[in-house]
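Weekly sync, protein design subgroup
Attendees: M.S., D.O., the rotation student, P.L. (late)

Item 1: inverse folding check
M.S. brought a backbone from last month's batch and wanted to see whether the design step gives back something sensible before we order anything. D.O. pointed out we never logged the input encoding, so this time it goes straight into the notes. Structure tokens as presented (342 positions):
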């Protein structure tokens, strides 16, 4: 059904990867509602993904570390927005409460079979159930389908502020035009690769393909990156914990290829058109793989994979089983087929 919406609120506070995968839906909304005011409610970690996006008029930030002091002003902003259409893409209790608190007459969320923590109760309308067999990005596009606004084209349109891109240019001055990013670190320990594998992969990519090596990741992954740097015998730029998320996006946008496990930087690589060789064990690329990069997926081998456990009780056998020849073969394929940069 086509729904009127002069003031639209998107509620998605989730992981960086989830927010990135919802951008195609955002751009479809902007195409369908060119004169509407579109607001996105988000939390600080994912703010750089949407903060400068051309399809967004306003971003409302829920600062969870501020506790109740931050919640009150945030909820007042939500209510004062006088939204008439809410898209609740989070599917948890928190987002359901925010959706309901908005007072919007049309609140669209996930079906009860696909939502969690009673989220569906707080929304007035729901997309049909699909289960876990559909990728998250296409699951989000079911909202566009429900609204009758079409599901193509798939566009991302991530924008990095010019001052951060200036910093990217300065960093890359000594790296060269052709380089590979190895991104490290995930929120789940079970999805993480190993320093020795990252070291070997970086060395072989440098020696076989002549690509400079850049390490990216969050501050908590500094020990991991230091271990890689200490053992790696080829030139390597270790910027783990040293860049903002915006700078990391800018670096990924200039990279020749990216390599790493299931994490936010994987999805951002795909969003900026850089081929990404993704490494899988505890989770499945069918649900959370980077869009357009199915041909570059590398899956570990273990009877229990995918287990969807945050902590692995058997030493991440699936990730240990990933063979370097397969990874390098995928890198070569990425280099042969080129990028999809806009």
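Designed sequence read out in the meeting:
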């Amino acid at each position: 059904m086509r729904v009127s919406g002069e003031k639209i609120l998107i509620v998605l506070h989730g992981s960086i990867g989830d927010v990135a995968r919802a951008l195609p839906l955002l751009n479809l909304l902007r195409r369908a509602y060119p004169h509407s005011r579109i607001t996105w409610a988000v939390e600080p970690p994912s703010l750089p993904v949407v903060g400068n996006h051309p399809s967004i008029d306003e971003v409302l930030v829920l600062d969870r570390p501020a506790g109740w002091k931050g919640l009150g002003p945030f909820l007042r902003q939500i209510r004062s927005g006088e939204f008439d259409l809410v898209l609740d893409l989070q599917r948890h209790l928190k987002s359901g409460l925010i959706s309901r608190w908005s007072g919007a007459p049309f609140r669209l969320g996930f079906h009860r079979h696909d939502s969690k923590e009673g989220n569906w109760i707080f929304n007035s309308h729901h997309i049909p159930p699909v289960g876990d067999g559909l990728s998250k990005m296409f699951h989000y596009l079911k909202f566009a389908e429900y609204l009758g606004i079409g599901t193509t084209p798939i566009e991302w349109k991530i924008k990095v502020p010019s001052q951060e891109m200036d910093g990217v240019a300065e960093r890359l001055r000594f790296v060269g035009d052709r380089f590979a990013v190895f991104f490290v670190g995930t929120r789940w320990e079970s999805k993480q690769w190993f320093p020795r594998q990252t070291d070997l992969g970086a060395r072989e990519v440098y020696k076989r393909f002549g690509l400079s090596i850049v390490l990216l990741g969050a501050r908590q992954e500094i020990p991991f990156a230091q271990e890689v740097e200490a053992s790696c015998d080829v030139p390597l730029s270790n910027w783990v914990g040293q860049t903002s998320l915006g700078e990391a996006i800018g670096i990924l946008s200039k990279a020749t290829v990216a390599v790493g496990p299931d994490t936010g930087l994987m999805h951002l690589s795909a969003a900026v058109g850089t081929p990404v060789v993704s490494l899988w064990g505890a989770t499945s690329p069918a649900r959370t793989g980077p869009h357009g990069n199915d041909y570059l997926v590398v899956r570990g081998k273990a009877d229990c994979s995918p287990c969807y456990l945050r902590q692995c009780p058997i030493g991440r056998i699936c990730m240990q089983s990933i063979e370097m020849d397969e990874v390098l073969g995928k890198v070569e394929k990425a280099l042969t087929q080129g990028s999809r940069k806009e």
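Discussion: Residues 30 and 55 are 6 Å apart (CA to CA). The chain is about 40% helix and 15% strand.
Action: P.L. to compare against the previous round before Friday.
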